[in-house]
Specification:
The protein contains 14 helices and 23 strands. The protein has 545 residues and is of the alpha+beta class. The chain folds into four domains: 3-234, PPM-type phosphatase domain (Phosphatase 2c, domain 1, 4-Layer Sandwich); 238-325, Phosphorylase Kinase, domain 1, CATH 3.30.200; 330-513, Transferase(Phosphotransferase), domain 1, CATH 1.10.510.10; 520-545. The protein has a six-stranded antiparallel β-sheet. Helix 9 runs antiparallel to helix 10 (424-440), helix 9 runs antiparallel to helix 12 (492-500) and helix 10 (424-440) packs across helix 11.
């Protein structure tokens, strides 16, 4: 995930509104864009042009065609906004009045792309202390005027563009500023201030204090210190081929392909040095499939809890794949064929699923597809009971994702069908459905087909399907699969606490359940007292006649 420490500040000339504008955005946690514009003061609407230009780039980058490269996107958008400003000037004023400088910086992966028009500047301070000016001022001097802009946004119908690309690393600092800043400070003292960790406001105010007010221009400054770059970009863009066909006995990087584990033959059991592993390849090389595979591999290698099999991406691989520990055993659906799970094993399964999801939560992730087929059951020789492992890294997504149909419909919470975000509560619902099925052999809300938008009705309590289920566990399951999120557990910790503290579990009933079901003893006591009172009133009435 791309992370930057950011600060920006604009200080207008004394007694003016100012003509500078700037803004930045991190899009989809992977793409950084920053724009800084200095409206040309000699133009009547320089400030308007600056603000319009900044807003245009921020808005357009958020909806850019994903198939376009960053350089193409920068060029197309720059030419478009330049043309818009020029034509608007000609239409309204018949001369150039919407005129602004432009600095545009974009970070994708470990590459910084820059484009500029005019005399605003972009600097890069590397982590080793070297300050480099990445732009060259578009200005000239002649016998009549000095510092004349030769290029600016809105100056002419056509514009000459140069896009640069620079490698960046964690610890580097990106700086965008107007001439009102760099005219007041040389490179060396600017470097010193940046290395002290000062923010944009502190630096601008420091410079303004030492400047003559009548000579000071608008001052705008943006500072971005790179704390983390997007690792997925490097993984995706590694020059690795994807095998179109795979055959038994083929050797890839020392791993011998033994047998495909799925019909599509993109997951193989492999061997190396008498050890068995699982090797997984992308389904295809189209952008979406590759994005999904790279994200899956990245998430898989971050997961270290014993609830999951170990996964890794070899540094020296020559083809596009990742490796996983081979988890021996059978999935829970096969294991429970024609029999329910024992109560002790069900409690152990609930605690196991909590620990697995809690680990993912620590990484900002959720499994997204909890179901019996993704739970492997193993039994160690000479030991009582069973142990579990979670599989299927392909379903894992970031928590609060809006991929509402990710997962298996019969195990999805109701809100997932109407665009609700994936969160702890929706995952708890899937855990509850899995426990319900494992103990009863049926699904609480029936079989739900893909792309179906179901109607949820109150299910039978699992204890009515399996009388061995203790009432406290029955309440936990019903609490977990509540249709209304407001009645369901919110956090994994709540579920885990009750699983390990049966004596603390209170009977759970959804709203609208009749009193006779919620508290039969209270119902009959109340009925008895009502009947007794009615008879007493009737007797008194008879005696009073």
């Amino acid at each position: 995930m791309l992370q930057l420490q950011s600060s920006e500040f604009i200080l207008p000339k004394p007694a003016t509104v100012g003509d500078d504008a700037c803004a930045f955005s991190i899009i989809d946690n992977t793409l950084f864009i920053s724009v800084l514009c200095d409206g040309v003061g000699s133009a009547k609407r320089g400030g308007t042009a600056a603000r319009q230009c900044v807003k245009f780039f921020i808005d357009q980058f958020k909806t850019r065609p994903k198939a376009w490269s960053i350089p193409k996107t920068m060029e197309v958008f720059t030419r478009h906004i330049n043309n818009l400003l020029f034509k608007e000037s000609m239409t309204q004023y018949e001369r150039i009045e919407l005129l602004t400088t432009l600095c545009l910086a974009v970070i994708e992966g470990d590459t910084l792309y820059t484009i500029h028009l005019g005399d605003s500047r972009i600097y890069l301070l590397t982590c080793n202390g070297t300050l480099t000016q990445l732009t060259t001022d578009h200005t000239m001097d002649d016998e009549y005027m000095s510092h004349v802009l030769t290029q600016a946004c809105g100056l002419s119908e056509n514009v000459e563009l140069t896009i640069t690309s620079t490698h960046v690393a964690v610890g580097d600092t990106l700086v965008l500023c107007s001439d009102g800043v760099y005219n007041l400070i040389a490179d060396e003292p600017l470097t010193q201030l940046l290395q002290k960790g000062l923010g944009a406001k502190s630096i601008v105010q420091h410079l303004a204090q030492h400047a003559k007010e009548d000579n000071r221009d608008d001052m705008s400054l943006q500072i971005f210190r790179i704390e983390e770059l997007d690792p997925l970009y490097a993984l995706k863009n590694a020059p690795l081929p994807i095998p179109e066909t795979l055959t038994e006995g083929e050797i890839i990087d020392g791993y011998t392909l033994m047998v495909p584990m799925m019909e599509h033959e993109r997951i193989w059991k492999v061997s190396k040095n008498n050890e068995l592993y699982v090797m997984k390849f992308p389904m295809s090389d189209d952008d979406q499939a590759l994005d999904e595979f790279v994200r899956e591999a990245w998430y898989a290698k971050q997961i270290t809890h014993k609830a999951f099999g170990h996964a890794w991406v070899p540094d020296d691989r020559t083809k596009r794949y990742y490796l996983m520990e081979l988890v021996e055993g059978i999935n829970l659906r096969v294991y429970l064929k024609n029999r329910p799970l024992s109560i002790d094993s069900a409690i152990a399964l609930g605690k196991f699923l909590h620990k697995a999801e809690a680990h993912l939560l620590h990484l900002g992730l959720v499994h997204g597809d909890i179901k019996p087929e993704n739970i492997i059951v193993t039994k160690k020789i000479g030991e009582a009971g069973v142990t579990f492992k979670m599989v299927d890294f392909g379903s894992i997504v970031e928590i609060f994702s809006l991929n509402s149909r990710a997962g298996t419909p019969s195990y999805l919470a109701p809100e997932r069908f109407i665009g609700g975000a994936i969160n702890e509560s929706t995952e708890i619902f899937s855990i509850g459905v899995t426990l319900y099925w494992a103990l009863s052999g049926t699904l609480p809300y029936g079989e739900i087909e893909p792309f179906q938008t179901p109607t949820f009705k109150s299910p039978k309590r699992p204890v009515k399907l399996n009388s061995n289920i203790p009432l406290w566990l029955d309440s936990i399951i019903m609490h977990a699969i509540a249709i209304d999120p407001a009645e369901r557990y919110v956090h994994y910790s709540e579920l885990f606490y009750e699983l390990k503290s049966p004596e603390k579990v209170k009977p759970f009933f959804t709203k609208g359940i009749p009193l006779i079901e919620r508290a039969p003893l209270t119902f009959y006591k109340t009925g008895f007292m009502f009947l007794l009172l009615t008879q007493a009133i009737t007797l008194i009435a008879l005696l009073s006649k």
